[in-house]
Write a structure and sequence with these properties.
By secondary structure, the chain is an all-alpha fold. It is built from 17 helices and no strands. The termini are far apart.
Length: about 375
């Protein structure tokens, strides 16, 4: 979860989400007019915390209405007011900057969020390094970890791995030392960054350590552990350690199924099937995929395409029912054209199609 501090900000952002998804433009305009009226009645003193809160509220509404320039101006004004009142390095300024970042992130404006995250991280890191903790900040370490996690993810999304990985590493360490469950999110993001950089051994080390840490407080069948098992299976597959990869994939399948997460269950089944074929067990792959092909439709195109690809791969490995394999591959290719992550499997689909013998009649 991206950093958020203060019930007031939570209310503002909840209103922003409701405005953007459910309320009409007219309701948003009325809300904005009411906020403007309330602001006009505030005392003109620049030290008013109420004025800062009102600027936060108005900025959220401006952004919900698509008025990004006005929202940016309100955010700049409230931060300038807060800095003038409390100083550049006050923790409250960091929290306001973090909430501004959250607001921009939820509006899919990561470039606008990044400078606010940097400011929040700089301020909180300075206080965390101080031998005297500031009053009113008993959770400073966890707040800083949350900021670093968000900032690390933002850098990864921008393709800046060298900046993102150290921040996620620090965030995970801080969360883990405090016994906070958010370390799972940091560990997952860090492992995926390693996998994207073809550093499967590093991903395995992160995930194994995280799984061990989580098992000290969670039962083995807890749904939150599914993502660790899934990504561990991927890392071990990349390292050629197929037996343990198969075990972790099977755990992911069971946990996602028990949690009723259809798309993720299908993806885990596809992964388990792929590993089974690589282990020379195509019959097992057919068993895996049989249970999801006729289950209720998934919403993720990849969750529809990948199990078809792996079932076709198993049939080809067995040299059995090649027309059925072709049909599955053609369906997978059609689904992959929808876009999203399913497109990443397109090359594999085409490769298997070309390897199949031509159908009778040359069609």
């Amino acid at each position: 979860m991206v950093y958020l501090a203060g019930a007031r900000a939570e209310e503002v952002l909840s209103m922003s989400r409701a405005s953007s998804s459910e309320a009409s433009t007219r309701v948003e305009e009325v809300s904005l007019a009411l906020v403007a009226k309330a602001m006009s009645l505030l005392p003109e003193t620049p030290t008013s915390a109420t004025r800062i809160a009102a600027l936060e509220q108005r900025a959220a509404l401006q952004l919900a209405m698509g008025r990004r320039g006005d929202a940016r101006a309100d955010v700049a004004a409230l931060l300038q007011l807060a800095r003038g009142l409390m100083g550049d390095d006050h923790p409250r300024v960091a929290r306001l900057a973090a909430n501004a970042a959250l607001m921009w992130s939820r509006a899919w404006q990561p470039d606008a969020a990044l400078p606010h995250l940097r400011e929040a991280e700089r301020v909180l890191a300075r206080h965390a390094a101080s031998p005297i903790a500031p009053p009113g900040l008993p959770m400073l370490g966890l707040e800083l970890a949350a900021i670093r996690r968000a900032l690390g993810l933002a850098h990864l999304e921008a393709g800046e791995r060298a900046l993102g990985v150290p921040l996620l590493t620090a965030a995970r360490a801080a969360s883990a030392s405090a016994g906070d469950s958010s370390s799972l999110e940091s560990a997952t993001a860090l492992a995926l960054a390693h996998l994207d950089a073809h550093r499967a051994a590093d991903a395995r080390a992160v995930l194994q350590a995280e799984l061990a840490a989580q098992l000290t407080s969670l039962p083995p069948d807890h749904a939150e552990l599914a993502v660790v098992h899934y990504n561990l299976a991927v890392a071990l597959r990349e390292l050629g350690q197929l037996a343990p990869a198969a075990d972790h994939a099977a755990r992911a399948v069971a946990l996602y199924q028990a949690a009723g997460q259809a798309d993720l269950h299908r993806l885990a089944v596809a992964l388990a099937s792929q590993i089974a074929v690589r282990r020379g067990q195509p019959e097992l792959a057919l068993q895996w995929t049989a249970e999801v092909l006729h289950s209720p439709s998934a919403s993720d195109p990849l969750a529809l395409a990948w199990p078809r690809l792996e079932r076709a791969r198993a049939l080809i490995a067995l040299e059995r029912d090649l027309p059925e394999a072709r049909r599955l591959l053609l369906e997978a290719r059609q689904i992959s054209q929808i876009g999203g992550n399913a497109g990443a499997r397109r090359a594999e689909i085409e490769q298997l199609l070309h390897a199949l013998p031509a159908p009778k009649g040359g069609k």
